[in-house]
Amino acid sequence: MAALRSWADRAALDAGFAAEVAGHLAAGIAARGAASLVVSGGRTPAGFLQALATHPLDWSRVWVTLADERWVDADHDASNERLLRASLQQGPAAAAHVVGLKTAAASPQAGLAEVAERLAALPRPFDVVVLGMGDDGHTASLFPDAPELAAALASTAAVAALTPGAAPHARISLTPAALLDTGALYLHIVGADKQAVLERALADGPVEELPIRFALRQTRVPCSIQWAP
Ligand SMILES: O=C1O[C@H](COP(=O)(O)O)[C@@H](O)[C@H](O)[C@H]1O
């Protein structure tokens, strides 16, 4: 169950999508006094997060975490938390509570219990989950070539540890069980290459081949795809 919204360009997507997400967060604050947002890392979301930070919310009531993390420290160039803090925690949005997924544990596997505990602090269901997608069809850190993929897809736990074959860094990822526990679900992608991957993902084939299919095929929460060239 997925609907596609095509924007004229990336700047229009970042601004329009941020306004829509800010609306969900404002509604969450109004309804239960707090709101929760799960965002993705990688190259795609920086402009969207910067646009979101300009919205005049009561950011002290907003909890933000990541769909996944590379097992690197929060000041590492590859850290998704680093991107999140640099892009979103600006101006009034500096008051947002960022819940990182990297711990001092030696591996994602060893960090699972602590991360699950951290995530328990966020209002659930989440108000908004924003997924990204890689050119191999992975989303969050659910990589097609990770040996732990099938178990992570089927898990009832909130987080899983994965070791992608080709992509760098061991990973920790929210599972579909957690990612779908949300009032609003988005897939944020840009460019012709990702459009082509999306078309493949919307066609028949196993979820394990293109893991983003778990989000496109489920019927628990509508998935809105935000795309720009
Ligand atoms: O490794 C990751 O990749 C995906 C896609 O990233 P992008 O650079 O192609 O936008 C991202 O959604 C995920 O959070 C990240 O850890």
Automatic annotation (TrEMBL):
Q: In which pathway does it act?
A: Carbohydrate degradation; pentose phosphate pathway; D-ribulose 5-phosphate from D-glucose 6-phosphate (oxidative stage): step 2/3
Q: Which GO terms describe its biological process?
A: carbohydrate metabolic process; pentose-phosphate shunt
Give all residue intervals belonging to the Glucosamine/galactosamine-6-phosphate isomerase domain: 9-216
**Reactions it catalyzes:** 6-phospho-D-glucono-1,5-lactone + H2O = 6-phospho-D-gluconate + H(+)
Q: EC number(s) on record?
A: 3.1.1.31
Q: Which UniProt keywords apply?
A: Hydrolase
GO molecular function, a single term: 6-phosphogluconolactonase activity
Q: What does this protein do?
A: Hydrolysis of 6-phosphogluconolactone to 6-phosphogluconate.
To which protein family does this belong? Belongs to the glucosamine/galactosamine-6-phosphate isomerase family. 6-phosphogluconolactonase subfamily.
> Any idea what this protein is called?
6-phosphogluconolactonase
Q: Which gene encodes it?
A: pgl
